[in-house]
C-alpha cells in the first residue's frame, strides 16, 4: 500500500502544478465595453466558449458607461482594448493625438437601437413624430447621430419638427422614459423588448435597418499597444472571428443560452428574440474587417449631424491587416 501511495502522490503534485502553470501562462488583457448589451453577443460567446483562453488570453471585461469614459480609460492605460463606437477614435485623432486610437476588429455593423413609442401604434409613419417629445441618445454619440440621420432621411428635422431631448446620460435613458419623459425613445436590446413585454412601449422602427452598414462598435487600442503586442492583438482577433462565425452559424436560441450569464435579470426568451432581431437585420459583423465603405458611411452620418471634426482617412486610424491575416489562416 505504501508503495502505491508514494507512486500516486508525485502524479497528483504534477497535475496540481501543471494546472497552476497553465493558468499562470495566460496573458491578461483588460477590455472596456461601453455598455452591457445583447448587441455585443459575439463578444460574450467568445468569453463563454473559452475562445480567448484557447488563445492564451485572460480577458478581464469591465463595463464603462460612455464612449468618452472608455477613451479616457484607454488613453490612461486603465484598459488595453476598448469596445466602443468608431466615432470616438475620430474625435481623439482630430485633437492631434501623439498615440492614435486604432480600430482593429469590428463587432457590429449597423445601428443597434430601436424606436419605441410609449402608446400603442398601428401603421407607424415617421410623420407621427412631428410635435412629439423624442428622448434620444447622447449628443455626438453614434446612436444619436444615426437617429438624426434616419429622421432627416424621412423628412423630419430633429431640431425643428419635434422636441429632441438629449441631455440625459446613456445609463438613465430607459428609466427616464419609464418615469414619464418622452413620447418616443431610442433604445437598444434587450431593453426595447423588455419594455414591450412589460407593456411600457411598442417597437415601431429599427434605426439599424434604416441607416445601412457602419462600423458601429469596434475593438480598438492605442497604436503603441498594438505595436508592442502584435501577437496579443492577433490572438484576440482570432478568438473574436471564431465567435462571429459561431453566431452566424447558430440560431438565436442557442446563442441566448450561451450568453445568459451576462444578462441574469433578463429572461432567456427575451434574449432570444433580441438576438434574432439583430441577426435578421445583419447587425452582427460577419468578420472583424472594418472596410472603407463603412468608414465613409460613418463620416457621412457624422457630417450630417454636424459632428465630424475632421475628414480622417480610413487608413489613418483603421488597421485591417490583423483581421485579414486571421481570416486568411
TrEMBL record:
Signal sequence extent: 1-22
Keyword Signal in annotation: yes
Name recorded for this polypeptide: NitT/TauT family transport system substrate-binding protein
Domain of life: Bacteria
Main location: periplasm
Cellular location(s): Periplasm
Cellular component GO terms, alphabetical: periplasmic space
Lineage: Bacteria, Bacillati, Bacillota, Bacilli, Bacillales
Record-linked Pfam families: NMT1_2 (PF13379)
Annotated family: Belongs to the bacterial solute-binding protein SsuA/TauA family.
Keyword Signal belongs to the record: yes
Keywords, sorted A to Z: Signal
Alphabetical list of PANTHER family matching this protein: ALIPHATIC SULFONATES-BINDING PROTEIN-RELATED, TAURINE-BINDING PERIPLASMIC PROTEIN
Amino acid at each position: 500500500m505504501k508503495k502505491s501511495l508514494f507512486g500516486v502522490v508525485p502524479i497528483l503534485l504534477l497535475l496540481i502544478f501543471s494546472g497552476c502553470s497553465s493558468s499562470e501562462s495566460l496573458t491578461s488583457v483588460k477590455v472596456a465595453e461601453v455598455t452591457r448589451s445583447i448587441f455585443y453577443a459575439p463578444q460574450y460567446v467568445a468569453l463563454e466558449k473559452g475562445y480567448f483562453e484557447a488563445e492564451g488570453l485572460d480577458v478581464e471585461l469591465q463595463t464603462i458607461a460612455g464612449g468618452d469614459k472608455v477613451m479616457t480609460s484607454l488613453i490612461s492605460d486603465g484598459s488595453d482594448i476598448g469596445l466602443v463606437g468608431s466615432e470616438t477614435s475620430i474625435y481623439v485623432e482630430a485633437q492631434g493625438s501623439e498615440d492614435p486610437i486604432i480600430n482593429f476588429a469590428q463587432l457590429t455593423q449597423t445601428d443597434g437601437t430601436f424606436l419605441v413609442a410609449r402608446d400603442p401604434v398601428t401603421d407607424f409613419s415617421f410623420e407621427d413624430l412631428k410635435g412629439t417629445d423624442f428622448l434620444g441618445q447622447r449628443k455626438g454619440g453614434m446612436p444619436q447621430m444615426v437617429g438624426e440621420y434616419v429622421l432627416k432621411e424621412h423628412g423630419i428635422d430633429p431640431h425643428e419638427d419635434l422636441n429632441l431631448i438629449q441631455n440625459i446620460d446613456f445609463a438613465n435613458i430607459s428609466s427616464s422614459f419609464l418615469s414619464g419623459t418622452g413620447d418616443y425613445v431610442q433604445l437598444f436590446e434587450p431593453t426595447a423588448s423588455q419594455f414591450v413585454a412589460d407593456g411600457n412601449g411598442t417597437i415601431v422602427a429599427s434605426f439599424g435597418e434604416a441607416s445601412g452598414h457602419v462600423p458601429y462598435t469596434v475593438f480598438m487600442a492605442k497604436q503603441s499597444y498594438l505595436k508592442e503586442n502584435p501577437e496579443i492583438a492577433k490572438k484576440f482577433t482570432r478568438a473574436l472571428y471564431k465567435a462571429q462565425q459561431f453566431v452566424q452559424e447558430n440560431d438565436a436560441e442557442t446563442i441566448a443560452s450561451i450568453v445568459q450569464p451576462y444578462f441574469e435579470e433578463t429572461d432567456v426568451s427575451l434574449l432570444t428574440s433580441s438576438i434574432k432581431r439583430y441577426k435578421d437585420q445583419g447587425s452582427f459583423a460577419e468578420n472583424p474587417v472594418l472596410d472603407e465603405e463603412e468608414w465613409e458611411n460613418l463620416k457621412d452620418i457624422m457630417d450630417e449631424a454636424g459632428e465630424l471634426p475632421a475628414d480622417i482617412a480610413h487608413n489613418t486610424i483603421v488597421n485591417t491587416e490583423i483581421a485579414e491575416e486571421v481570416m486568411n489562416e
